Automatic annotation (TrEMBL):
InterPro entries: Leu-rich_rpt, Leu-rich_rpt_typical-subtyp, LRR_dom_sf, LRR_domain-containing, LRR_R13L4/SHOC2-like, PH-like_dom_sf, PH_domain, PPM-type-like_dom_sf. PANTHER family: LEUCINE-RICH REPEAT-CONTAINING PROTEIN (PTHR48051:SF54), PTHR48051. Residues 1158-1177, 1182-1215, 1301-1363 are annotated as: Disordered. It comes from Dimorphilus gyrociliatus. Residues 1194-1215 have a biased composition (Polar residues). The keyword Transmembrane helix does not apply. Residues 882-1129 form the PPM-type phosphatase domain. GO terms for cellular component: cytoplasm. GO terms for molecular function: metal ion binding. Keywords: Leucine-rich repeat, Metal-binding, Repeat. Gene3D superfamilies: Pleckstrin-homology domain (PH domain)/Phosphotyrosine-binding domain (PTB), PPM-type phosphatase domain, Ribonuclease Inhibitor. This is DgyrCDS56.
Length: 1376
């Protein structure tokens, strides 16, 4: 049996975060503070949980090396009492007929052993005795066990079918027929299990057992006989032969016994063992080996020389205690947590009349321990406070948490020596007033009960003249007001008040009375409903936690203030007066602040400053020079354009600076020269085009992590970066780099480098000499070869997809140490299948191929590494969806994410995609990867068109996880798309179910729409449900200290707090639904929904889009597992006006045809659509009016031009300046009027409602503008010489151009994929819409999609075009 960690003999206190903590002092004092009150030992004996709850504590009642009494033999003996081996009778009943005869009928499956079971027909009214009679067993021998946890005996008045049905309803089953049918399922045993015996005691107990074959003699005159003997704990067992036979064994209790070394004639190595329990008995043991003799001597002395003072019987399914425990009157610490103990009178009342109960072993008998100081009875299903405990006057700490106690008796005040009383997680509403007589009480924990106001007894106990209670721990109750002046006056001496997760509003009339709290230093009001907090009257306040409220205003007194945590509110301003000289931590992130007070930069002790995710345009002017001790500055996701100036020669001590997602154009000139302690700098997603000079002193450039993704940096910046010789992480993705300097060889400590999304044509050979390099990402460039990476012995991840790789020795790469190899989207790369034959079973690899040339290669399927993308359906051009993904283990060595990709699920009319995040374990994710598609297929066929098949898919998968799902779990999002028919029109329906923190976003008309639900306590509905199930939520928001998710597949031991019932969304897809993003918490924790949609909006390839989102999250600081899936939708095969991007246009002559089509569709669907579909008229696409070409030749007709609707999008506004009309000459000499939609300034939020439809607004403006001949004339005179030259389109002034083809329908011959990022001072750039088809594969036509990309600058910029492979065939360019 493992060392006891019962957690008794500890006490509460408050650390810097205001959390209650505990520790132990040798003389049972409770004045130190080391640990939060909900913490426990995760490796507790007898537990089958990853985290054991909140009821035990570490290092309690002694040091870890103190001896704990091993009672394993007694527990095994107790488990064997009443164990039945009778074969169960199988009732003869027809299942279908029984279920159909009555809706109250059902089945339960009863197990006699671990694998033998019978099905018993029951009705809701069937009682336990009737079920027992059907099975032919005793009425008291039926047990029930939930999720492999505590097994309890069923009472005679209980109904097993009611218990089972209630469980099924709680986890999500809602149909009566399904609940009836589930009773026969064998998978249900892992959730709820009925049996005729308790679980046999085997692997639950870890016992240090000693076994030997020795010569044994009983007494002095018996003969020597060779027998088998065992020693376990304080019990020695002697068998009558050399084989173990329980029926003929003699048990010797060594408690109060004696062991001696003796000499006998003719024998050596002899021990004399004496026992006084059960009569005086003496045994002589002779061993042939000296080593064996010494083991027994040491073990026997340990069992007899001193009685242990600690006993741990937690989680043992005990209804009574083993009688042997009462042999030790000196017991001081007793841990009985998580059992089923009760008082004898209650046990007699609940048991059958013919059942013989043990005479000892009840809670009443605990008074026999005259020296007991610490008792843990947490989680014993007690509905009352045992009065017999009031007789144990020696108790110093009593733990009755996690029971169902509704009332505390007045007799509790007899416990005069009690210092710590743990009553959290019960059903208490009141406390007796006489608790104030317990003047030695120091800790009183009342969190997570049902109090609706602060008990007067608690307030009175904080008076130093009555007791030593300094902390009021009342989190997780229903307290809404603190306006009672009498109670507040009694809190005068309280130092810590914890009121998390209550219903406080704290109006000004209440906080005005807080002036009486003269000694208050720590206040915690997280997760309440406070809107305006004014605590200026609390002069001694040092620490304040007020996160996740609704505050718009915060006012504090700064006399003693040391730390403020006010994130996730709606703060527009806050004030601290006077200036907080002692402030060392300030967190006002996730608010709506526009400015910060300047005095913050003068706080000398300020070390941590968090102002991220606000609306700040400036930081305090002297934040770098004034805050002398500032270590961490987090100001990301704001509107900063410049940083405060840094004075030359005045160094600052900041170690970590996070400024990503701002608009910073340049760093202060002396920033790096003065940042002598800087280790982490994140400037991703800004506008930097150069970096200032480094410090001339080599050793003062100490940056270790540098994130510069998404800027405008060129090659010159790389030379500056190479001066950080201690650099370990370097992110330079999506800049304007064309080459990496050879000086990068100086970065010998570099472990990770990301240079994706640039214009690199080669990688320097010196990269292969970086021996510590682990991750190299260089996808989305123009690489045609790779350097020799053999010397990079630690390289594990190599991502060079989406390049021009041609001459690459894949065999050498596969034979190297690389475990993740991504060479996707390299159109000219061909892989020989023979390269995989020799290494197929030696390592895990992932070679993702998306080009089609290497699809189906032998050896690429069946790999153990995550989901190779080698399904031909992924590239079927007839499918109306395209899927791309990107997964990364981050800084962890273990990838715990699995992806579901069934793009032709039961045919081409449906698809299933999903993401499974196992957190820190991959077992559940791997298991669900197989289970979910199989179960979904069964449920779809079974349910037909009913909408609950996804719901039941999740619940059934939860049960099929078996024993693995009892301990660990996973968050899942599963999307099912299928085609439906309405008249003559094809329609597609998207259904998505999710549990946990895997979320999905739908892009509709460019807007991000969340289509999943985040299951955590941040959701009010989930918080209320968790509260009703009596769960405990820690300060980190974790349920019972285990997971932040309130719904998951698996972790069934957390039932009923965490359930598998998913949130299901059903959406009828429309032509303006463009793509779906599915991501785990590694993505959404760092990237907002709107930002994710905006970043990949113009990226046609779903693979490239997924990669960019992964790069973005990692550049923002994500170090954990990341999983991203992008599903591009093309469910509308006809042209649609709803998809016109910026800068696209259509002919005016098409409007009448579009109107007729709209009316025809309205008649068919009997509804007014939000979009108009065009037929296939000759369409025109031109740049915006600022660059209309002078040579007015029409473009070839489009096969699928799509126009965005103004009634639902911000990109076609009511401002007349956004629409222009021009006239173009056609080949036959006729003229054609063209409407051009100008790009609008990029706005963070789009208008949702527009009064008029886009066609009405457009028609009115056309009628006015067409009359103006001056406008038409000016439009025809525009100069286009900068765009068209020598029959080709020039790209950024380079000689890459499109040439018309005459031999086939292919109209252009573009170069390989290029990317031209906008440079500073450039015009809005054109970019082509990237797709999945290979540009070099004839005869498929190449398509580009021209859109307007807005620069960060307002001044004029030259146009540029990015040409990629199209995902959707939009239109062909015939001539220019």
């Amino acid at each position: 049996m493992s060392t006891c960690s019962s957690g008794i003999l500890s006490h509460f206190s408050a650390d810097l975060n205001g959390a209650a903590t505990l520790t132990r002092e040798p003389k049972l004092s409770y004045r130190n503070k080391t640990q939060a009150w909900w913490l426990t030992n995760p490796s507790r004996k007898g537990s089958n949980r990853v985290f054991d709850g909140v009821d035990g504590y570490d290092n309690l009642g002694g040091n870890d090396d103190e001896e704990t009494w091993d009672l394993t033999p007694s527990l095994i003996e107790l488990a064997e009492v009443g164990r039945s081996n009778v074969a169960l009778r199988q009732p003869n009943v027809r299942i279908k007929e029984w279920l159909s005869s009555d809706s109250s009928h059902g089945f339960i499956r009863v197990y006699s052993t671990s694998s033998t079971s019978v099905i018993v027909p029951c009705a809701l009214s069937t009682s336990v005795p009737k079920v027992a009679a059907t099975l032919g067993v005793s009425p008291n021998s039926l047990f029930v066990q939930c999720h492999g946890d505590v097994t309890r005996r069923l009472l005679s008045d209980e109904n097993p079918l009611c218990i089972q049905n209630e469980y099924l309803m709680n986890i999500g089953y809602s149909d009566g027929e399904r609940i009836q049918e589930e009773g026969t399922s064998e998978d249900l045993q892992y959730l709820i299990r009925f049996s005729t015996n308790k679980p046999y005691v085997d692997g639950t107990y870890t016992s240090d057992k000693l076994k030997s074959l020795a010569e044994i003699r009983k007494g002095r005159f018996s003969s020597w006989q060779k027998r088998l003997c065992t020693l376990c704990g304080t019990r020695m067992t002697v068998y009558k032969s050399s084989s173990p036979n329980q029926e003929s064994a003699t048990v010797i209790e060594l408690v109060k016994g004696k062991v001696e070394e003796v000499n006998t004639k003719g024998r050596e190595n002899v021990l004399k063992v004496s026992s006084c329990i059960g009569g005086d008995r003496t045994y002589y043991l002779s061993f042939s080996l000296t080593s064996e003799y010494l083991k027994w001597l040491r073990k026997l002395k340990k069992a007899t020389i001193k009685l242990p003072t600690k006993a741990d019987l937690s989680n043992c399914n005990l209804e009574v205690l083993p009688h042997t425990i009462f042999n030790n009157e000196h017991l001081v610490i007793l841990n009985l947590r998580k059992n089923l103990l009760s008082e004898k009178a209650i046990a007699e009342m609940e048991s059958e009349t013919n059942l013989t109960l043990p005479q000892i072993g009840y809670i009443d008998d605990l008074a026999k321990f005259t020296r007991l100081r610490s008792l843990n009875l947490a989680d014993n299903r007690l509905t009352y406070f045992p009065l017999s405990l009031c007789e144990i006057i020696t108790l110093v700490e009593l733990n009755l948490s996690s029971n169902k106690i509704e009332k505390i008796p007045e007799e509790t005040n007899r416990l005069r020596n009690l210092q710590a009383l743990h009553l959290h997680n019960n059903l208490l509403r009141h406390l007796p007033d006489n608790l104030t007589t317990m003047n030695r009480l120091f800790i009183l924990v009342l969190a997570f009960n049902k109090f609706n106001q602060l008990p007067p007894a608690v307030a009175a106990l904080t008076d130093i003249r009555i007791s030593d209670v300094e902390k009021v721990i009342m989190s997780g109750n229903q307290i809404s007001k603190l306006s009672n002046e009498l109670i507040l006056s009694k809190l005068k001496f309280a130092k810590v008040i914890d009121l998390r997760l209550n219903r406080l509003q704290l109006h000004a009339s209440e906080t005005f009375k807080f002036h009486v709290l003269e000694q208050l230093t720590h206040l915690d009001i997280r997760d309440n409903y406070v809107t305006d907090l004014d605590l200026r009257c609390v002069k001694g306040l040092q620490s304040l936690h007020c996160e996740r409220n609704r505050m718009s205003n915060l006012q504090l007194c700064g006399n003693c203030l040391k730390e403020v945590f006010a994130s996730n509110n709606s703060l527009e301003q806050f004030a601290i007066s006077p200036k907080p000289e002692l402030l060392h931590t300030l967190d006002v992130s996730q608010n709506q602040l526009r400015a910060l007070p300047d005095y913050l930069s003068e706080c000398f002790f300020l070390e941590r400053f968090y102002v991220n995710n606000n609306n700040l345009s400036n930081l305090p002017l002297r934040i770098f020079s004034g805050a002398k001790k500032l270590r961490i500055l987090r100001a990301d996701h704001n509107r900063l354009t410049d940083l405060p100036e840094v004075e030359e020669g005045r160094s600052f001590l900041i170690e970590e600076v996070y400024l990503q997602a701002n608009g910073i154009k340049q760093l202060p000139c002396y920033f790096f020269q003065c940042a002598n302690k800087l280790k982490i700098l994140n400037l991703s997603s800004n506008r930097l085009n150069f970096l200032p000079n480094l410090n001339e002193t080599y050793d003062l450039n100490k940056v270790q992590e540098l994130y510069l993704t998404g800027n405008l940096l060129n090659d010159r910046a790389c030379s500056t970066i190479c001066g950080f010789h201690r650099l370990k992480v370097l992110h330079l993705a999506y800049n304007d780099l064309t080459k990496l300097p050879e000086e990068i060889a100086n970065l010998q400590f570099l472990q990770e480098i990301n240079v994706s999304g640039n214009q690199l044509r080669f990688l320097p050979s010196c990269l292969g000499n970086l021996q510590k390099l682990v991750v190299l990402r260089a996808h989305s460039n123009a690489l045609n070869s790779l350097p020799d990476l053999k010397k990079a012995s630690n390289l594990r991840v190599l991502d060079v997809g989406h390049n021009r790789l041609l001459n690459v020795n894949v065999t050498s790469l596969m034979a190297s140490q690389i475990s993740l190899l991504d060479m996707s989207l390299n159109a000219q790369l061909k892989v020989d299948p023979k390269a995989f034959k020799n290494i197929r079973h030696k390592k895990r690899v992932c070679l993702v191929d998306l080009t089609g040339q290497n699809r189906g290669l032998p050896g690429l399927t069946g790999r153990n590494f995550p989901d190779p993308l080698d399904d031909p359906a992924d590239h079927d051009p007839t499918l109306p969806w395209k899927v791309g993904f990107s997964i990364s283990p981050g800084w962890r060595n273990k990838l715990c994410i699995s992806l579901v990709r069934e793009l032709s699920f039961g045919g081409k009319d449906s698809a299933v995609v999903g993401l499974i995040d196992g957190g820190r374990n991959d077992q559940v994710a791997k298991r669900l990867l197989t289970l979910l598609p199989e179960i979904l297929d069964e449920e779809v066929k079974r349910s037909g068109n009913r909408s609950k098949f996804l719901k039941y898919t999740f619940i059934r998968a939860h049960a099929k996880l078996a024993s693995i799902g009892q301990k660990i779990g996973a968050s899942v999002a599963l999307m099912y798309i299928r085609r439906t028919y309405s008249g003559m029109i094809n329609q597609y329906t998207l259904q998505l179910a999710n549990v946990g923190d895997v979320e999905a976003v739908l892009c509709r008309r460019g807007d991000a729409q969340l289509i999943t639900k985040l299951h955590s306590i941040s959701d009010s509905e989930e918080r209320q449900r968790i509260y009703e199930t009596s769960a405990i939520v820690t300060e980190e928001g974790k349920i019972n200290g285990t997971t932040k998710c309130t719904r998951q597949l698996g972790v069934s031991y957390l039932y009923p707090h965490v359930i598998p019932d998913p949130h299901v969304t059903r959406i009828a897809l429309r032509p303006d639904d463009e793509f779906v993003i599915i991501g785990n918490k590694g993505l959404w924790r760092f990237v907002s929904y709107d930002e994710a949609v905006e970043k990949i909006y113009d990226i046609g390839s779903p693979v490239a889009a997924a990669k960019q989102l992964q790069d973005l999250a990692q550049s923002y600081g994500c170090r954990e597992n990341i999983g991203v899936m992008v599903i591009r939708l093309n469910t509308d095969r006809g042209p649609s006006l709803a998809r016109l991007k910026r800068n696209q246009s259509m002919s005016i002559d098409d409007l009448d045809a579009a109107k007729e089509l709209e009316e025809r569709k309205n008649k068919q669907t009997k509804s007014s659509p939000a979009y108009i579909e065009l037929p296939f008229p000759p369409a025109r696409i031109i740049p915006g009016p600022s660059s209309i070409p002078e040579q007015k030749k029409p473009l070839q007709s489009s096969k699928g031009l799509r126009v965005r609707s103004a009634s639902t999008s911000k990109e076609i506004d009511n401002d007349s300046s956004s629409i222009a009309i021009s006239e173009y000459s056609t080949d036959n000499g006729s003229s054609q009027k063209v409407v051009t939609l100008k790009p609008l300034p990029k706005q963070r939020f789009r208008k949702k409602n527009v009064a008029e439809g886009w066609e009405d607004v457009l028609r009115k403006r056309l009628q006015n503008d067409v009359k103006s001949k001056e406008l038409e004339h000016s439009a025809m005179q525009l100069n286009t010489s900068s765009l068209v030259s020598s029959g080709g389109v020039w790209l950024n002034g380079e000689s890459n151009w499109f040439k018309q083809s005459t031999s086939s329908s292919r109209t252009i011959t573009p170069p390989a994929w290029t990317s031209a990022a906008p440079s500073q001072g450039a015009n809005p750039a054109y970019s082509a819409f990237e797709g999945d088809e290979d540009l070099n594969d004839d005869p498929k036509p190449v398509s580009i999609r021209v859109s307007r990309q807005h620069s960060r600058e307002d001044d004029a910029q030259p146009a540029s075009v990015r040409v990629t492979r199209p995902a959707l065939q939009m239109f062909d360019i015939a001539q220019l």
